[in-house]
Specification:
Elements lengths: L2 H23 L4 H19 L40
Length: 88
C-alpha cells in the first residue's frame, strides 16, 4: 500500500517526460519552421550590407603617448555671492 504513491509519481513523471519529448527532440511546427526561415533570410540580408564606417575616437587622450601624465580635470567657474550681514 505504501508503494502506490511512489508508483503514481513515477507514472506521472514518465507521462510528463513522454509529453515533453517532441519539444526536446527537435520537432518543429510549420509556423516555427517558416518563422525561422524568415529570420535567417533577414539576418543574411543584413550581413550582406556593407559595414558602416568606424566612428572616429572622441577621446581627448586618443593621440597622446602612453607615458603622458593625466591632465587636470576641467573646473567650472566659481561664482561668488554677497555674504549676508552678520547678526549683532
Amino acid at each position: 500500500m505504501k508503494d502506490i504513491p511512489a508508483r503514481m509519481m513515477g507514472g506521472a513523471a514518465l507521462l510528463l517526460l513522454a509529453a515533453a519529448t517532441p519539444a526536446v527532440a527537435g520537432h518543429s511546427s510549420k509556423a516555427e519552421i517558416e518563422a525561422t526561415r524568415q529570420l535567417n533570410m533577414q539576418a543574411a540580408a543584413q550581413a550582406a550590407l556593407p559595414a558602416p564606417p568606424p566612428i572616429a575616437a572622441r577621446d581627448a587622450a586618443a593621440n597622446v603617448p602612453d607615458n603622458t601624465p593625466p591632465a587636470a580635470a576641467p573646473t567650472a567657474a566659481i561664482q561668488s555671492a554677497q555674504m549676508a550681514p552678520a547678526a549683532p
